[in-house]
Design a protein that fits this description.
429 residues, alpha/beta, Rossmann fold, 6-stranded parallel β-sheet, elongated
Amino acid sequence: MPTRFSRRSLLARAAAGAIVYRAAGRAAQAQTKADVALGFIGSGIRGKGLIDEFKAVSGFRGIMVADVYDGCLQRAKEQLGPSIQTTKDYRRVLDNKDIQAVVIATPDHLHLQMVLDALSAGKHVYCEKPLTWTHSEGRKIIDAVNKSGKLLQVGSQGKTTTLVAKAREIITSGKLGKVNMVRLSEHRNNAEGAWIYPVPPDASEKTIDWPRFIGNSPMKPFDAKIFFRWRCWWEYSGGVATDLFVHQFTTLHEMLAVQRPASAASFGGIMKWNDGRTVPDVMQSVLQYPEGFVVDLYVNLANGSSRGRGIWVMGSEGTLQLTGEAITVYPEPLFSEKQMYGSDYMPKAMRDAYLKSFEGKPETQTRPEQVIKVERGPTHNALFIDALVNGKKSPESAEEGHNAASAAHLVNAAYRDNRRAAWEDLDLA
């Protein structure tokens, strides 16, 4: 299933022959003192996946599911049992006193109000990435979290993996030297990867609460394609940037211990999937980070090549490649000071003497790559339950989710305004 693989990992397969790294403090799953009662707001493709993921965590108890499509509510009962409560009005979930925390997996444009309402209702929150639909929403959510005293965790799974933790350890150790460039990429070339999901035959205004889906966006006539493929329109989504770049930004920020970019330029367009969508299906962005490195990242929904896919961190002393299974470190060669090409301008006798001066000195030496495999630790979902029960800090805070989402908003601003955009521009907007 290429779409599901690329959506979550954005990575390629690892090379053979590996050194296994056992992460310190690894646990099979987070241990809890009592079951946490969860309510789910949004039970579409990602919401369905989150229900399955939380079902695999000890200490989980599903209480109620809200979704505006009858089919999703029916399927939620198939997952959690016929006795699970369902509703089309998410506020009923917030009114349920038995529910301690909610899991929000709705279209981007609905996140803000649902998160604010959940915190006001005294619920802890797990919100699927991107945390926000616009940059300004991030500060509102951060302020609300601080005021409420509740836990909010953003759902970008890459941030908390043991693989990323090991990559961060390698980078911060200085093994790569001074990091100067990071390259990230993702390829897809099928309808599923381009969010052209099938429309159920029963889709209608009778089975879908269209006004609740529209929320605060401008009302328009019912369109089942928009409902099931909402990522294709700016009114409800940030396109490839908020759906796919955010995974990369979250991982990047964690690995390099940075918070946000300073500026960005973006290019792209609708190259293949000219189906009425308004967001690009090919997008490339270059970002400058204040720590002194450049990030080059892109998504191509019109080409399925696996070559070059993944995350590459390049420094003066080596390169780190992060894949779905392992980390590969490629040390830079130990270069000789002798220059063959660079001395070609010299007269023969002079060049011969120059080259002779290096006799007995080391020639350029290549150093072997190192492949490091990392054992899996607790899942992102298990860490949420663990943090709730044991009073730990959020594994992915509102501030971190805001910075990753707004990095995506920054590249969208650059693309839509056809200019180089600065982070300060977002703050002033």
